[in-house]
Amino acid sequence: RLVNSEANSKRINFVEQCFGVSGQPLAAPRRVLVGEGVLTKMCRKKPKPRQFFLFNDILVYGNIIINKKKYNKQHIINLEDVSLESVPDEGELYNGWQIISPSKSFTVYAATAMEKVEWMAHITRCIQELHKTRGKKSMVTEASPVWVPDNNADVCMRCRKSEFNVINRRHHCRKCGFVCCNDCTNKRWLLPCISTKPVRVCNVCYESLAQAGTSVCVSVCLSVGWLLMIVKVFCASVG
After folding, report:
1. Is residue 144 part of a domain?
2. Where residue 86 sits, what CATH number does that domain have?
3. Same domain, 201 and 175
4. pLDDT tens digits, the chain, 239 residues: what are they?
5. What is the DSSP letter of 92?
6. Which stretches make up the FYVE-type domain (predicted)?
């Protein structure tokens, strides 16, 4: 009922105005703003409040400049390829879950247990409706990793030797999300779901990706070889 309603259009237009020229247009055919609210997002250095907007096909979030008036650094995640995973309470962080997608994955925390339940239920319902409408199965083929926060690693998570300090900076592998030193993440690999350019990966992931790439190449070469052989036999029989 809200799809083509004036109230829905006004709500979406207001969200667009809050992001200003730095944000992307959000109005689209059959798009509905389901709900909104502030969630604590686990960022690289520490948890930070972020404004989230749940639509029936996308999840939008950004930095809060003026609450309910102005936001920036808009991020848009397509719900079609999203999955959710509950996170157990730990220390001072409660009511959390992971939002996992091919382009970006991260952990968020709600203010209360009920709020967590409601958020997860609404997102799940939107995902299920999308899959039902578009005839797609509920699965994420290749998800972006949830980054390990900086303060969770005092030493490189790969070599276990290099200690981090002002000079020896932390780096994240874009494939596994581990915090590593520069020597353990000095290689690049193209991960199309994350970027159009090669991104930083750790040595372990690089070797794994390289081996997988080699296996694919060998398989293709063998297939081509068999195809050429069949063509030769066919041509010889016809000749």
Report:
1. no
2. 2.30.29.30
3. yes
4. 566 689 999 999 999 999 999 899 999 999 999 999 999 999 988 999 999 999 999 999 999 999 889 999 999 999 998 999 999 998 889 999 999 999 899 999 999 999 999 999 999 999 999 999 887 665 545 778 899 889 889 999 999 999 999 999 999 999 999 999 999 999 999 998 888 899 999 999 999 999 887 654 444 444 545 455 555 655 566 55
5. T
6. 150-210
